[in-house]
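Meet today's protein:

…
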Amino acid sequence: MDLHVPAGSAFGLIGPNGAGKTTFIKSVLGIVRPTAGTVRVLGGSPEDPAIRARIGYLPERLHLPGTWKSPAFLATVARLKGLKPDANAHARLLERVGLSDAVDRRIGGYSKGMRQRLGLAAALLGDPALLVLDEPTDGIDPMGRLEVRRILQEEVQKGVTLFLNSHLLAETERVCDRVAILADGRVLREGRLEELAKAGARWRVRFAPGADRAALTAAGFMAVADPARGGRTGAAPGGDVAPMGGGREDGVYSVDAADVAVLNAALDKARASGALLMELKREGADLEAVLVGAVGGPGVAA
């Protein structure tokens, strides 16, 4: 396999079970050695201690000392990373991952989600240049995922490179700007999300009821059926596709726009006619559809 992760990107690795995702991560970290080929991380060898010190890692199977408390655990991880333990910094880190109320509890009493949060805190120690996270939100509740997602986005905004392996495709889609699809140890597809999803220049728009259909058509909007409401399509004057039974009730349209400037110009014309924008979405396949299409066949377990 051949894979390049741009510095400063949020990169997701997805694929079926047994595709080799975790093995690849272990080779990137120098935990296992490839029998052939070369692995370069942050411009050097993953076996170089100076390189490894710049990497934060959250493994898929996280084993934590149950009799310890989280501050003691972070202090030990800091020493292993060659860092001087800083109780105040560790307290801020625990607060950041949502564990400030659990510092006096033993780790053995933590839930799975709390353990994942502590593992993330350990990965963030020392302000790493590269974060390698294997299933980081596994076991975390929906609100916790929002918090973790915010933390990861903050790190990427700081210039940190994020390498994420997760079977939660929706999370990958929300966090990552680039993905690679791995199957049987081979990279089948790789690139920016919008490129893989083949998202073209078409947008789906919903306007509030009462919009002037003729004015919207003149602005470049084509009325379409709203599948969520069971709408059926039929031919409209001028060749447009319109919901049978009346397009005004649904208010769902599509518009082709080569770039955001063209899109906004069309929306300005629509608003000038009195139309009120309720929803705007770029059309394209989601990550699950991209994965199934690349690997082949439904029933693929990511």
